[in-house]
């Protein structure tokens, strides 16, 4: 599923207030990191990922690789931070409740 520019803009606005949940260190894109991000996407759908200065991969490359491997969409990449989104249709949603990332 590819996001429309309107959906992407709405998610960008939502992501602005989030703190990074997943941090990519000097080990790069490890299996453990992918598992952590997969869990975060499953429970929160919208996840901000921060890359440390010692990371060899660029935020843009990391975002696209992770999105491809985990079936997510890249919402945005700014500096050393990227935001990924993956809808989880199995997540319980109560009517009128805030989205899972809040």
Could you characterize the architecture of this molecule?
This protein is α+β, with helices and mostly antiparallel strands and 102 residues long. It has helices at 5-15, 31-44, 59-70; strands spanning 22-24, 46-51, 73-78, 81-85. It has a single domain (5-85), classed as YhbY-like (Translation Initiation Factor IF3). Helix content is 36%, strand content 20%. The chain has a four-stranded mixed beta sheet with strand order 1-2-4-3, sandwiched between helices. The relative contact order is 0.22.
What's the domain count? Answer: 1
Give the topology string: H per helix, E per strand.
HEHEHEE
DSSP strand tally: 4
Largest pleated sheet: 4 strands, mixed
> Which geometry do the CA atoms define?
globular
Task: Give me the CATH fold name.
Answer: Translation Initiation Factor IF3
Task: Identify low-pLDDT runs.
Answer: none
Number of helices: 3
Any idea what the CATH superfamily is called?
A: YhbY-like
Q: For the terminal residues, how far apart are their CA atoms?
A: 22 Å
Radius of gyration, in Å, reads 13 Å
CATH-defined architecture: 2-Layer Sandwich
Mean pLDDT: 92
- In the CATH hierarchy, what is the class? Alpha Beta
The helix content, as a percent range, equals 25-40%
- For the biggest β-sheet, the strand order reads 1-2-4-3
Determine the structural class based on helices, strands and strand pairing: alpha+beta
Q: Beta-sheet strand percentage?
A: 15-25%
SSE diagram, text form:
Layout (H helix, E strand, L loop, with lengths): L4 H11 L6 E3 L6 H14 L1 E6 L7 H12 L2 E6 L2 E5 L17
Parallel strand pairs: 1-2
Antiparallel strand pairs: 2-4, 3-4
